[in-house]
Amino acid sequence: MMISTKGRYLLRVMLDLAERNADHYVPMKEIAEHQGLSLKYLERIMPVLTKHGLVEGIHGKGGGYRLTRPTNQYSVGEILRLAEGELAPIACPECGGEHCKRAKECLTLPMWLQFNQLVNDYFDGITLADLLAGTLSD
Question: What is the dihedral of CA 1, 72, 57, 19, to 10 degrees?
Fold first, then answer.
C-alpha cells in the first residue's frame, strides 16, 4: 500500500492548521509557503477538507482556513481516507470479500481482512494531537 501525495499533503495541511491552533483563519498562501507546497495544488485539495467538514474556509480579505474541531478529534485515518478512499491493501477487504467469486474458498482472504483491520486501527488510533505532541515512538 502506498499513500499518495494527495494523502500526505492533506495530512501536512491539517497539521499546519493544528500547529497554529488558530481562532483566526489562515490564508491558503501562508499554508502553501509554510509547507513548501504549490498554491495551485493546494487550491485543488482544500475543497476536499471543506466539503467533508474538517476545515472551514472563508474567502476575501481576512479569509483562509481553520480547523472545525479540537486536534484530538481528528484521526490520521479519517484524513487519509479522504484522499485514498479505503486504505485496503487489495480490493477484497474493501467489500469484505462479498463480491469475490472465490471468497468462500480463498485461504488468503482472512489474512487480508486482518491486515486491513490492523492498518485502519493503526491510523484511526493516531490523532493530530498525537502527532503534534510527538508521542509516537520510532
Answer: -90
